[in-house]
Write a structure and sequence with these properties.
alpha/beta, elongated, D-Maltodextrin-Binding Protein, domain 2, three-stranded mixed β-sheet, 12 strands, disordered N terminus, nine-stranded mixed β-sheet
Length: about 290
């Protein structure tokens, strides 16, 4: 009888423990369900040029708003525009304006300019070439010049680093520097500003182009020779209009931004948000 009593007590204890575990699991599940219901998610995709600004801004915004979850990823301007146009993202980041084909395909897209940027031409730090004309840059990228001695540098093959076809930076460069000429065949294509910078920093004969905010000591930014005046790629020169390779940076929404999406974009345009733009090496618009 004593053995039976022990078994019964053990069974009751196990049953009670099982019930408690079940209650805890259900409570946790319900708690998570209610928590998820209260959190608003913003999905942002696109330009790797704009990405550092939005990443920093999202971190600052979420610190103030614990009920908002902002998820930011790259992929290029074309990816961002397509994502917001097709409804898989709330905001598309782009370092260029819409193409005519995109305007037709996504007629309801609305743009917001959040910053200005210069495109810096970069070379390896040991390359003695410190300035180029726009014609020389175009000549390098169309294959006219293949050795650094052709543009006043050492006898060293030029390794051309380009962006991939989804890049808004490439699109802008093709229009405003290349004048829509074809790029040289055999250029190494990279899918982000960071990848271009890394490759140039590791390749003595390389040349590439990146957003101003990506320039650091690992590469050398080339001055642009404009009628004999050497113009550095700086925030000040973009602001005063003297640097010739400059553009706007955009956020796109499907229709006018509303709700928390609108509030987040307004935060980027606020003094705090524009300070983030400046801190990231870009040019504030306000």
């Amino acid at each position: 009888m004593e053995e039976v009593g022990k078994k019964n007590k053990r069974g009751v204890a196990i049953g009670a423990a099982t019930s408690i575990v079940g209650i805890v699991i259900i409570a946790a599940a319900l708690g998570g369900w209610f928590e998820d219901k209260n959190v608003q998610t913003i999905t942002v995709m696109g330009s790797t040029t704009v990405l550092p600004i939005v990443q920093r801004a999202s971190e600052a915004y979420m610190e103030k708003h614990s009920d908002v979850d902002i998820r930011v990823s790259g992929g290029g301007s074309s990816v961002g525009i397509r994502a917001v146009g097709e409804g898989t993202a709330d905001i598309g980041m782009a370092s260029r304006d819409l193409k005519s084909s995109e305007k037709k395909e996504y007629p309801s897209l609305k743009k917001t300019v959040i910053a200005r940027d210069g495109i810096a031409i970069i070379v390896h730090p040991d390359n003695p070439v410190s300035s180029l004309t726009l014609e020389q840059i175009r000549g390098i990228y169309n294959g006219t010049y293949t050795n650094w001695k052709d543009v006043g540098g050492p006898d060293m093959e030029i390794v051309v680093i380009n962006r991939d076809s989804a890049s808004g930076t490439r699109e802008f460069f093709w229009k405003h520097v290349m004048h829509k000429e074809n790029f040289v065949e055999g250029a190494l294509e990279k899918n982000s500003n960071a990848a271009v910078k890394l490759t140039v920093s590791q390749t003595p004969g390389a040349i590439g182009y990146v957003g101003l905010g990506y320039v650091d000591a690992s590469v050398k930014a080339i001055k642009i020779n404009v009628n004999g005046e050497l113009i550095e790629p700086t925030v000040a020169n973009v602001l005063n209009g003297s640097y010739p390779i400059a553009r706007s940076l955009y956020l796109f929404t499907n229709g006018e931004p509303k709700g928390v999406v609108k509030e987040f974009i307004e935060f980027i345009l606020s003094p705090e948000g524009q300070k983030i733009v400046e801190d990231e090496g870009f040019v504030p618009i306000r």
